[in-house]
Batch of 4 targets.
Target 1
Amino acid sequence: MNIASKILQVLLIIVCVGSAVGYFRKPQKLLDSMAILKIPAERLSLLGGIKIIAAAGLILGFSSVRMAVLTGVCLVIYFAIATGTHTRVKDSVKNTFPAFALLVMSILFTITTIAK
């Protein structure tokens, strides 16, 4: 893997873990945002768990390119769904941008990992 891939990998690990912690804590601002997206509060632990698993996959990806690519593809799917969910409810650009930016980062990570 090249340096760009590793930088994106570390950034995605940090974002996934940080976001998962927020999902497990369920602050009111997050609950309000999820209500707009029509995502039940009970699902936040599941979404947090997915992000913890993704972070673990990214960590294992440091020693396995296949794991890195698989995790990258899964993150592309996750953040494509997240971006689509924001778009479906006509959420603001400000609220949609983080999911879209992480989609782009996941795509770039996957491409740079495959390219070696």
Target 2
Amino acid sequence: MSAVVALPPGFRRAGVTPAVVIAHGAGADMRSPFISTMHAGLAREGWVTVKFNFPYAEAHRRAPDPRRVLEQCYRAVLDAIARDRALRPPWIVIGGKSMGGRIASYLAAAGAPVRGLLLLGYPLHPAGRPAELRADHLPAVPVPMLFVQGTRDPLCDLARLAPVLAATPRATLYTIDGGDHSFRLPRRTGRADAEVWEEIVRVAAAWLRHLDRGSPAGAPRLPAG
């Protein structure tokens, strides 16, 4: 599979800088503008950042692979980063956009050796079917989680997300007011996609710095929207 590693400014020595792995969503690959913004932005903020393609995206197929294949791929990427002598990150956070974050959450719930879970537009339920939750495994995730969700996301009814978060006390929610599943805002707001995506980079970086301090008690202080 193809993967791209972005190194932070001044990176010189393995074994010091934590890594973040970001997987793409079902309808795009690792070259999507959003994933590319997060990839470059988190590296700029000081983290080794990795993006990669799932097998179906690598083969230019539209239909995602079965969950088993997606999980195997993500686990292989995680293992490769942990063993890479040029990186040797002291800890790793995994996550991604929509489906990519959901696959990462299954790995975390199963005990993958990660420090945190970064969920960008978590697909809590299929569009138009808010009762069909994809959340049974989330209370089993033993590490801190950051959910970044648009308030207009048709795949995440925030009223349905609230009890899920109540059952996962190590979860933090940051909302993009007016954002849809791709974090796009109505044109009347005057906010371009790039501006919103940079806000998400800043929020994710603040949360990662909280983890880097050893996850002290209390919720991390995230930048205001």
Target 3
Amino acid sequence: MKSPKSAVGSSAYEGVVPNAPKNMSELLEGFLEYARYELNFSPQTIKKYGKSLEYFIRDIGDKPVEQYEVQEFVHLKKLMMDRGNCETTIAGVVYAVRSFMRYCKDFLELDVIRVKQIRPPKRFKREVIFLTKEEIERFIGTIDVNKWNGFRFRVLVEVLLGTGMRIGEVLSLNRRMIDWEKREAKIIGKGNKERTVFFTQRSLDWVSKLLERRKDTHEAIFVTRGPINRLDRNDIWRFFGYHRKLAKIYKKLTPHILRHTVATNLVFNGCPIVHVKEILGHERLDTTCKYYLGVDKEKAKKAHKQYLEMYD
């Protein structure tokens, strides 16, 4: 087995010596530090990767990293599917393990499984779920803004609907990021890439009201009630579930569904797909096309009739 590279001055890598097999859990801290400061992953991604690797250890076991075999990754997917985990959740764990194994092979020079052998589950294209205008109004109408938690949740929903941001991007917003005159903010989005997001005036008005009601000086836009900390995505899921039931909406309702709602509204209103790509922060145009072109079945049917029936 090859010896790992030297990491002088970095306590996270001390103790990694030749011919001393290390369990995954022992290398986890060093990997997360490497991902944060060498790969420049965002804090949100680091947290997600840490949780994903803990899930892997729980399901497959903690042992020297050189001993993991291909069949164990197949078994991991089986266990997660049996539990009812969706393809996205399974893929998240698989990608985290792939990144960890690449770190072990390329940085620590350990004789681990080839990364290409660790395959994420095949993802099938499904119909995009989004809310209609009437469903949005019902949903918003159930939120009691006279209570602090309700008011904060209403502002969160308004920002999601007014920007099309991912939930992690919204929760990472700080006061100083927002340019109130230009109605925009520079954020660090998916893949740790900087991008500019745009706000509707309505969403900014709600953010302004939220900041006016706050007495603390915490930099985050969305914070817990006390002690004051940045709001975490785990703090908000119950609000979506609760208000979905109150609004009698019988489809999935998550922050990402609101992002789909923004995108489909843009497409329905004639926004060029290349602008939809920029608003959503997609790196590739084909990603935007894959999800949102052809999403309006009624308009597609009318187009079919208009452009093809001439040949009847």
Target 4
Amino acid sequence: MAGRIVVGTSSWADPGFIKDWYPPGMPAGERLAWYAQRFEAVELNASFYAVPDRETVRRWVEKTPEGFTFDVKLHRLLSRHSATLDSLPPALRERAKTTPRGRVLLEPEIEQALTEELLYAIEPLEQAGKLGALLLQCTPGFKPKKSSLEELEPLVSAIAPRRLALELRHRGWVEDEQLSETLAWCSEHGVAFVCVDAPPGDHFSIMPAVDAVTRDDLAYFRIHGRDTHGYLTGKSVAERFGWVYGDEELEEVAGRIHTLAEEAREVHVLFNNNRDDDAPSAARRFRALLGQDPGPPPDDGQLRLS
């Protein structure tokens, strides 16, 4: 039997969602429950910038129905992005070392402690059976020859037995003979390789369409839009990832997803084209295309369905 396909968006609280998707004037505290009537999963984006408050996480559990899934993006420091001291939990700030420019150095002790802080914060999701996968979205600066996948092994071990999905953002990881080595490493370490729908182009930061299942219980697919110029030059999330997917494009993506579902018991599909209502509109149309129930109709003609 084909695996279950779970669809959502990368965040539920982007400014564009609030401006163009949620009913006008909806209180912030009601948005997640409204979102969860229309999707079965969401990617937590706020955890990329700071470890969430455990009590806040507990409230998220209460606001979502049984069976709802949270995929959690790991902190930017863990994914080798630049991070400042104020992005760390207060208890870690005095222990961390920084560069002359104030960027935190990713040392083994800080990596382990930050991982433990995050896992403790999201424990209510795990206890409620609502934790899907942890997403490690590496910076394009994490690249072959300069870096190695082996550097990630302490983090993989710290997260286990929870599921980890790895999104690489330097195409060198999937070119020529490196592709087989990358996929073999993911399979050996039980890491789900993140597949993407990305803009056309051969820039090193644009990942090609590589569809691979590296753990039996999970395939992970992120949808970034197809605006090459915006992706490479945009200063904001809206500029980089804005894209209105047409039905033919969604059908093309669906074909790739069905192929993954033939090998994995579950496929998480997260729309990251986060400009205005581009992501939730496309994700809801995608659910309808798959034959899934896209949830109750929106208010005031929101959500483009055609």
